[in-house]
Amino acid sequence: MFAPNDIPSRFQLRHATMDDFEFAESLTRRNMGGYYVRHHLIWRGDLFLASYRESENFILELDGEAIGVLRVTQEADSLHIRDVQIAEGYRGNGAGTFLLDMSHRWARERGLRELQLRVFVDNPAARLYLRMGYRVAGPRLARLGSIRHMTRLV
């Protein structure tokens, strides 16, 4: 896999370790908490830990400070983006676009066919995903729920 920091950017991306788990879970839970409440879901730390252990996890840094998390898994010919989390105060400045671009480059480098992600219907990040070529996928009934499944061809 190519080194993401070889691409000129003000952001740095590094592999996460278990030492980063607390940051990753805290940021994800803080960012997703309102959606979980609105959509009557319960946060399960044990499920997040299991998913973290099964994913390729990355920490996004700006000037040496951790500001985001990217978690991906590869399944067959798809790269699944499990989390794109950006800390409040750093959104809207290209951090999410940078992480999605990295994911697309990795999928292309691996010879995969598509990228997939899920997003709450009321999450403003869905607009970014649409601008970056993702489209709502799945059966019609799945489109009526609180979470949208989105895909993009590589």
TrEMBL record:
N-acetyltransferase domain span:
11-154
Keywords on record: Acyltransferase, Transferase
The domain of life for this entry's organism is: Bacteria
Q: Under the GO molecular function aspect, what terms does this record hold? A: acyltransferase activity, transferring groups other than amino-acyl groups
Gene3D superfamilies annotated for this entry? 3.40.630.30
Is the keyword Lyase assigned to this protein? no
Annotated protein name in UniProt: N-acetyltransferase domain-containing protein
